[in-house]
Design a protein that fits this description.
Elements: H1 16-44, E1 100-105, E2 111-115, E3 121-122, H2 128-138, E4 144-146, H3 149-152, E5 167-169, H4 170-178, H5 183-194, H6 197-210, E6 230-231, H7 233-244, H8 247-253, E7 257-261, E8 268-272, H9 276-280, E9 285-293, E10 297-306, E11 309-318, H10 321-338
Helix pairs in contact: 2-5, 2-7, 4-5, 4-8, 5-6
């Protein structure tokens, strides 16, 4: 950024003291500009920022937004969907529409269909997408997550057999978070990654701010409580795109079922995905997450791929999210092939 240090005016004769003072000010200004530039660069490139201790608060999160991919190449597209620039290409009207919804291109952010995409609503367990992103940012592969009494005091959906006091591999816990939507897994991961649940929720909200999510706020890592926990379809589309850019998470959310090592008798944990598209065998499904509470209704973020076309759909408070997502994706793929 250009800076104007001296502007117009008559030239005045300066004595030795004023010359020395001016030189000192120039040196200080140059040093300050160098520090500013260095810090700004660290905020963009996660490789320049050392990983903070697990319990630390305030580190830059979701730091790969805008970061060039490994091995060079161009930077990935921004995560937000292009609501203003896009004209809907899928003229689909539901007899009983969701309260909010969005069909979008995962690679470009182009919107193909929308229904009140910026309406703020409770999102239930779709919250766990952000939980997974923060854990992926802060917890290395191979870490062991301790199962606490607080985690076992969960309410709602759960893995259900987590052993008190034992340590479980973070990969297994992320599967338990994202496939059966375990609230017990969400609490244990939050305590491990943030030091406490309240601190972890603070990190989630810091991530939402960093990503520019204007209608999103979190009050828990699991989404079981609706009060103070909300988002909108447009923000959830951005979160979904971020999840699929993380290889560790992308591998998990596309699995229909999995058997993993587990510290109980038999040594195996069998988990099954709640995603209706995966359960129904919808062709090309790559993820992602379901959610339900009385206040949020049935919610779904689903993604699929056909050839080089990758689409995503967000449905909030839908009467039949599996059927509606299938209809939207089918028409979206046809429209994308024609364009």
């Amino acid at each position: 950024m250009p800076y104007t240090l001296f502007q117009g005016g008559r030239r005045r004769r300066r004595g030795p003291r004023r010359s020395i003072w001016a030189l000192a000010m120039l040196v200080a200004a140059a040093a300050g500009l160098g520090v500013f530039t260095s810090q700004a660069g660290q905020g963009i490139d996660r490789s320049a920022v050392p990983r903070a201790p697990v319990a630390a608060v305030g580190v830059p999160l979701i730091a790969d937004v805008g970061r060039p991919p490994a091995g060079g190449g161009t930077a990935p597209a921004p995560l937000g969907v292009r609501l203003e620039e896009s004209r809907d290409r899928v003229p689909l009207r539901f007899k009983r529409p969701p309260r909010s919804g969005l069909l979008f291109d995962l690679d470009t952010g182009r919107v193909l269909w929308r229904k009140d995409p910026t309406r703020t609503l409770p999102i239930a367990s779709l919250t766990k997408m952000m939980t997974a992103l923060v854990v992926d940012d802060r917890v290395p592969r191979g870490d062991k997550v301790r199962i606490t009494r607080e985690a076992l005091a969960y309410r709602g959906s759960a893995v259900g057999i987590l052993p008190l006091g034992r340590r479980v591999n973070v990969n297994t816990m992320l599967h338990g978070l994202l496939l059966p939507s375990g609230n017990d897994a969400a609490i244990a991961l939050a305590q491990h990654a943030g030091g406490s649940v309240p601190r972890f929720v603070g990190l989630m909200n810091a991530s939402a701010t960093r990503m520019g999510l204007g209608c999103t706020r979190f009050s828990s890592p699991d989404g079981y409580r609706n009060r103070g926990n909300h988002s909108c379809a447009a923000d959830l589309a951005a979160i979904a795109r971020a999840v699929l850019r993380r290889p560790r998470l992308a591998r998990i959310v596309r699995r229909r079922q999995v058997a993993l090592p587990f510290p109980i008798k038999g040594g195996r944990l069998y988990l099954y995905n709640n995603n209706p598209l995966l359960r129904q065998g919808y062709r090309g499904t790559t993820g992602l997450k379901t959610g339900y509470t009385d206040a949020a209704g049935r919610c779904l973020v689903a993604t699929a791929r056909r050839g080089q076309i990758r689409l995503g759909v967000v449905l909030l408070h839908s009467r039949d999210p599996g059927r509606q997502a299938t209809q939207l994706l089918d028409r979206g793929f046809r429209a994308a092939r024609r364009s």
